Automatic annotation (TrEMBL):
Swiss-Prot/TrEMBL keywords: ATP-binding, Membrane, Nucleotide-binding, Transmembrane, Transmembrane helix
Protein name as catalogued: ABC transmembrane type-1 domain-containing protein
Organism: Cervus elaphus hippelaphus (European red deer)
Keyword Nucleotide-binding recorded: yes
SUPFAM superfamilies to which the protein is assigned, alphabetical: ABC transporter transmembrane region
Length: 178
């Protein structure tokens, strides 16, 4: 998606019209005004309680939903398959139905079967008679699929975390330069 911009930039200086438009929910005006509303509420509460207003409290009130969702995902990302399984057993059917849980089980499942596939491929290379050529191809395909699937899910998570961080940065910058 950047190649057309590089070509235009190579031929002439880029203009604002050459750039892609920002999504409506990511516009500085929208994000800044949303955070400004929470900041104004925090200032009023601080005056009422005779304390200094806290930008941190305003940010938490504005972005807590995004960070809670991705924070749970981060927690599950760091923990091993066993801890994830224990968490889902304890929490019961509430988490069992969520998309985050399904994606996490898929990711962790791929991490569990990767060593199995790798072990079978090593058995084939060591000239063990227990694995045929077609089975070795199957294990290689399975390992490749697991690695690809895990990478896509892992990077999807990082994309969303970076997007939440970008939105926070844009909102704070909008408030600063207002």
């Amino acid at each position: 998606w950047l190649n057309p911009l590089f070509k235009i930039g190579y031929k002439r200086k880029l203009k604002q019209d050459d750039l892609y438009s920002v999504l409506a929910e990511d516009r500085s005006q929208h994000l800044g005004e949303e955070l400004q509303g929470y900041w104004d509420q925090e200032v009023k509460r601080a005056e009422k309680d005779a304390r200094e207003p806290s930008l941190t409290k305003a940010i938490i009130k504005c972005y807590w939903k995004s960070y809670i969702v991705w924070g749970i995902f981060t927690f599950l990302e760091v923990k091993t398959f066993t801890y994830s399984a224990l968490l889902f057993r304890v929490c019961g059917s509430v988490l069992r139905r969520t998309c985050v849980e399904r994606v996490q089980w898929l990711k962790e499942g791929t991490r569990v079967v990767q060593p199995i596939f790798l072990g079978k491929m090593i058995s084939y290379v060591e000239n063990s008679n227990s694995v045929t050529l077609h089975e070795a191809y199957g294990y290689a395909a399975g390992l490749s699929t697991c690695v690809l699937l895990w990478a896509v899910l892992h990077h999807l998570y990082f994309y969303h975390i970076q997007r939440v961080g970008m939105r926070l940065r844009v909102a704070v910058c909008h408030m600063i330069y207002r």
